[in-house]
Amino acid sequence: MKDQETTALASEQRLLQRLIIAPEGVRPALAEEGDRSGRRLAAVIRDDAPLSAVERLEVYANAYFFRILEVLRKDYPALEASLGEARFHNLVTDYLAAHPPTRFSLRYAGEGLGCFLAGHAVARALREEFPWAADLAALEWAIVDAFDAADHPPLAREDLARVPPDLWAALRLRLDPSVRVIRAAWPVQLLREASDGSQPLPALTAGVTALLVWRKDERVFHRAIDPLEAGLLDLLAGGATFGDLCERMALEIGDRDTPARAHALLERWLERGMLAGADKT
Amino acid sequence: MNPSRPNPPPSRPSGAPFLGVGVGLRPKHYPHVLEQGLRGGLGVDWFEALSENYMIPGGSPPRVLDDVRARFPVVLHGVSMNLGSTDPLDENYLDRLARLIDRVSPAWVSDHLCWTGVGGRQLHDLLPLPFTEESIRHVAARILHAQERLGRRMAVENVSSYMSFARDEMPEWEFLAAVADRADCGILLDVNNIYVSARNHGFAPERYIDAIPAERVFQFHLAGHSEQGPLLIDTHDHPVKDEVWALFERAVRRFGAVSTLIEWDDRIPPFKTLEAHAARAREIIERVTAREDESRETLGGRAAGEPGSPRTVGGRGTSRAVIAPDGPAGRALRVGPGAPERPGS
């Protein structure tokens, strides 16, 4: 008895949800359900004058879409500015049809937008017109992600200074949980910088770019970095030792320049608060 | 009322502590709240934090919440427990909420009497349930489970609604009261939501207020709404309307001094506008409860609260059943630092 009752409530909730999230709106979705007149819906939702059941459900359908649109506009300000309001609106409509939210917090509603832009068939036309859009989305999502990444006290310069020279080669440097490295085919940071500064958006020229995102003192920063630094950060993220980093540097820039370059990079990472620890292995 | 009884009933029949008048903690006001809160310069008594905004790994929001909690009582208010859904309760969500509760030691925890998604999806909206015996059984069992998991009694809030179900078997107030009774939980009575739903569905909001069991009311919400065609929409982006203030006064007459929260989530105004709302709510609570205390004194008892200080309104010692938030009755209570005292304890 109870199962049967809960099944009735479940099928009612599924029906209402299908109609609310239908990208083309409640009426066309009802027609697809074989209820063009709305008579079956009216058996669930009261047709109370002055509004019909369909019109009442449309209030929820609009709220669903616009609430998420507002969140995504805040998460992806440069993407919206560069695509334009109407295109961004349609992008969100298509995205939500493919990636309806499943996480408990709206904070995650936009997490799949970069992948959607990069690979979904529905986004193909947009991809052809704006080939950098997926890269920009990846940068903007990394900024969202870094904002509330786990806290970790930064590694202090003095802690590193205390490491005896013979232990350095086996030292593992840990990155702060907020650090993200993105590989882009376009210098999309220029769009975000212009958007943040309310400046006109520049036209982009394709060019492989590595982008670093990190948080320091509760502020999120991003900047383009050279391929060597990006490669070293990848190595660190994979658990490499300082010795491994020096080997990679020696391969790329030669033995002679490696010590000075390694020192400069360490200084820079410490200064940015990008290091969370140094483990002696 | 029995004039020979030594202790009169309190102005606030619910066992939830009276925190005064608070506002929602929103990022826009973080700097102001931290700076002025430190100096004791805020015209609000407590804060309500949206649980989900702080169920994150790190960054500034949890740190701000810790700083606010060090100076003010905090209530955690969730929007995603999905109590009314036919999906299984999200145990991962409850675990994370439990961790946040441990961190914050809130005066109590609340969520909504609604569903927010089914089939693993999230609508991020508060959808009404049909007011049926089936829904009561379903949602009450889930509230009991959540309370068990969180080790404390929670409060559920009535939502604004724009549609109603053909198979409703009772009015909303009977539904809410029955759920609270069956789940042995508190009620967060949103006075604006009552007004909005009353207008949208054509019932008298006063009937709703009058039918809610007083001992279960932990908290009031006050918010602004807007008109959209023939409907009122609970937008939280306007000042509280006069009609809602009037209904609030009626609620204070019926329920006494109940912790009251001004909600503002969109087009958020300067903090002083929220403080002005808080002052108006406080003035109503003080005026109405002072009048009640006077009439009580004429019956031979003495009201326990000191007039003029909303924090002390409310009595100690009563033979009425009180519904305290710090744990389901009859179970070992988990009382963390900063957890409210049970009245009479």
Structure description:
The complex is a heterodimer of chains A (281) and B (345). With 281 residues, chain A is mainly α. Chain A folds into two domains: 2-145, no CATH class; 152-280, Outer Surface Protein A, domain 3, CATH 3.90.930. Chain A has helices at 2-21, 26-32, 39-42, 53-75, 77-83, 85-98, 113-119, 124-129, 133-147, 157-161, 189-196, 227-237, 242-253, 258-271, and strands at 171-175, 180-184, 209-216, 219-225, 275-280. The longest helix of chain A is centred in the N-terminal third of the chain and has 23 residues, at 53-75. Chain B has a single domain (21-278), classed as Alpha-Beta Barrel (TIM Barrel), CATH 3.20.20.150. Chain B is built from ten helices and ten strands. In chain B, helix 5 (133-150) crosses helix 6 (172-183), helix 8 (205-211) packs parallel to helix 9 (242-255) and helix 9 (242-255) packs parallel to helix 10 (271-298). At the A-B interface, helix 1 and helix 4 of A face helix 3 and helix 5 of B.
